[in-house]
Design goal:
Blueprint: H1 13-26, E1 31-33, H2 34-40, H3 48-61, E2 68-70, H4 71-83, H5 86-97, E3 104-105, H6 107-119, H7 131-142, E4 150-151, H8 152-161, H9 163-169, H10 175-186
Antiparallel strand pairs: 1-2, 3-4
Helix pairs in contact: 1-4, 1-10, 3-6, 5-8, 6-7, 8-9
Length: 187
Amino acid sequence: MGQEESHSEEMDLAQIQELCILFMKECPSGALHLHEFKRIFRVPSSSAEESLYMETIFRSFDSNKDNTLDFIEYVAALHLLLRGNLEDRLKWSFKMYDKDGNGKLDRQEVKRIIRIIYKLNLLSNDVNMSPSEICDRIFELVDANKDGQITLSEFLEGAQQDEWVMQMLKLDVNASSWVIQNCGKLT
């Protein structure tokens, strides 16, 4: 498996520019807050799971932890999701799972994200396992030293050695497709 994974749909420069213009229009101060992020991505207030998922995504891109995304963080997020290589996207996925930021994933952290993904129906329909069963299988296949925690290196290695693990861990949010589909609606 190569480091680069082809994206079935690529964004063109005009679409990226449109998103940047939207950022400046929505956030003239240069700071994107969580509620604005949810509004831009049309997250319904009635969807607790989707709201939590988007909040987790937002926090993962807030690199300076000031509860806003500045333009640089926004562009970095778009670049990672739309054009990032496999290893970078896996590192981002790890960060999404690592809620406490200690550099290790425990079962609770993994199960939390799997539950959200499960509720949002982001898992393929051929997965006939509960979130707990998925979590157990991930730990069985990825936790190399069996210490009950998954390090970044175990995460990267496990995902790249097993296609099923890759699909469960990489949090492919299909951003290219979403942005292309919604780009015209955003302005």
